[in-house]
């Protein structure tokens, strides 16, 4: 299987050289194959958000190498990094960050319009995605009129709208009650499989992690055996 995401020797230190220095990542190696869904378990503060930001090109490591779809991201300029991120990476966070003044449909269509998709095509794709996660009947509602689980499903659709090859998720159902989290997580897994995505999904929840293809553990800045 070919590799979608590769991290090797990733190091990151905040406030280097100051009394407040925090050495967060100390040589992280990991790989996500095409079509593979990998869970990342990490105690709070272990550096999982930092790692996901580096993997998704929102932050640069102090050392090490990031490759996406076989392309080495080291030393790329901001424009190229932004281009790769927009076209190839979908993000899902614990809180949905939907735009409150737009409908569910518009929230999913907007990233496609920003990528120059024709409006009719963007709306058709948005509706098809919302249908897959069971929120199509509420496509015309704004986020405030949706339940927490529905809001998070819309956020999944938005992350997948531009057909990214790689999905990065940081506690994607962490703000939901356990039962809703379970159901919504199943929806996410189904959608990711259907779209053939490669994914790195951070969670504190061991039951959810067990549903993924493989689980990694981040501890004290390194990947350790689970
Ligand atoms: N911009 C920053 N400046 C200084 N320290 C930071 C910065 N961002 C994160 N840190 C520190 O780096 C460590 C790792 O942070 P990170 O957010 O990656 O952890 P996390 O594993 O995602 O935690 P949580 O599960 O609690 O969200 C923490 O000790 C945090 O305080």
From TrEMBL:
A Pfam family of this chain: ABC_tran
Domain ABC transporter stretches: 5-226
Keyword ATP-binding applies: yes
Natural source organism: Celeribacter indicus
GO-annotated cellular components: plasma membrane
GO molecular function (one): ATP binding
CDD domains assigned to the protein according to its UniProt record, in alphabetical order: ABC_MJ0796_LolCDE_FtsE (cd03255)
Protein name (record): ABC transporter ATP-binding protein
Matching PROSITE patterns: ABC_TRANSPORTER_1, ABC_TRANSPORTER_2
Entry superkingdom: Bacteria
Upper taxonomic lineage: Bacteria, Pseudomonadati, Pseudomonadota, Alphaproteobacteria, Rhodobacterales
GO biological process: lipoprotein localization to outer membrane; protein localization to outer membrane
Keywords: ATP-binding, Nucleotide-binding, Transport
Family that this chain belongs to: Belongs to the ABC transporter superfamily.
């Amino acid at each position: 299987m070919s590799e979608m995401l590769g991290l090797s020797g990733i190091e990151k230190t905040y406030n280097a050289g100051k009394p407040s220095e925090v050495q967060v990542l100390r040589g992280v190696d990991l790989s996500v194959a095409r079509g593979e869904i990998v869970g990342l378990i990490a105690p709070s503060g272990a550096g999982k958000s930092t790692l996901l930001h580096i993997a998704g090109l929102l932050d640069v490591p102090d050392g090490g190498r990031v490759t996406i779809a076989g392309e080495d991201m080291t030393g790329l300029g901001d424009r190229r990094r932004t281009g790769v991120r927009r076209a190839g990476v979908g993000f899902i966070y614990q809180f949905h960050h939907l735009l409150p003044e737009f409908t569910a449909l518009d929230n999913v269509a907007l990233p496609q319009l920003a990528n120059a998709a024709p409006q009719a095509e963007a709306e058709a794709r948005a509706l098809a995605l919302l249908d897959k996660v069971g929120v199509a009947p509420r496509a015309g509602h704004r986020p405030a009129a949706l339940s927490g689980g529905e809001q998070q499903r819309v956020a999944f659709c938005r992350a997948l709208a531009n057909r990214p090859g790689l999905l990065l998720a940081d506690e994607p159902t962490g703000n939901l009650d356990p039962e809703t989290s379970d159901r919504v997580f199943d929806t996410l897994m189904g959608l990711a499989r259907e779209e053939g995505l490669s994914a790195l999904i951070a969670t504190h929840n061991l039951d959810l992690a067990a549903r993924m293809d493989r689980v990694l553990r981040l501890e004290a800045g390194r990947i350790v055996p689970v």
